[in-house]
Amino acid sequence: MAVVLLLSTVPVAAASAQADCPVPASLNVCKTCHALEPGKPSRPTGPNLVGVVNQPAMHSADFTRYSVAMKAAQAKGLVWTEDNLMAYIADPKAFLASVNGEQLQNAMAFQLKDEAKRKAAVEGLEALAACQ
Ligand code: HEC
Asked: What range(s) does the Cytochrome c domain occupy (predicted)?
């Protein structure tokens, strides 16, 4: 009897884990352009960022507006490690130019210079990754 009860609670626990995934406040500045909820389609202004940490660049298959610079960086094997995320968010244009070895058109017109805020944003992305 106890076993049956345990089994029957598993789907309930999984469902509530999904619901308990608020967008971390440190990512409020990204909301203007990015979808930050699991399963939500990318917006025309930016790809969905859920699960982007430690994934290759261009991780959102439904985002059709990746720039020339992002496509070139993906071809060079760019992966969104913590360090790469920190550098990208500080200055997307300069970071992609350093990956590509040349300045190409990039699409994220946003910079977060403050190091503490950037670190909090990357931690927010890591927290979101657990919500898929
Ligand atoms: C003004 C709109 C805008 C804001 C604000 C913005 N982004 Fe972006 N972001 C974009 C666009 C557009 C792209 C696609 C860039 C490209 O193709 O060059 C992008 C791409 C990314 C990527 C690469 C995704 C992938 O699929 O490879 C990451 C990571 C990212 N943004 C993180 C952030 C974070 C974190 C914030 C907030 C701290 C943020 N962005 C704020 C527009 C924005």
From this structure: 15-129
How many domains in the chain?
Answer: 1
Q: For position 79, which CATH number holds?
A: 1.10.760.10
- The whole-number pLDDT of residue 20 equals 66
Indicate which atom in ligand 1 lies nearest the CA of residue 30: 37
For the CA atoms of 25, 41, 47, 71, the dihedral, rounded to the nearest 10 degrees, stands at 160
Identify the domain containing residue 71 by its residue range: 23-129
Ligand 1 and 78: CB distance under 6 A: no
Structural domain contains residue 41:
yes
Q: Ligand 1 pocket, 89 CB below 6 A?
A: yes
Residue 118: CB within 6 Å of ligand 1? no
For 90, phi then psi, to 5°, come to -65, -40
Indicate yes or no: pTM above 0.70.
Answer: yes
Mean pLDDT, rounded, for 43-55: 97
Amino acid identity, residue 60?
S
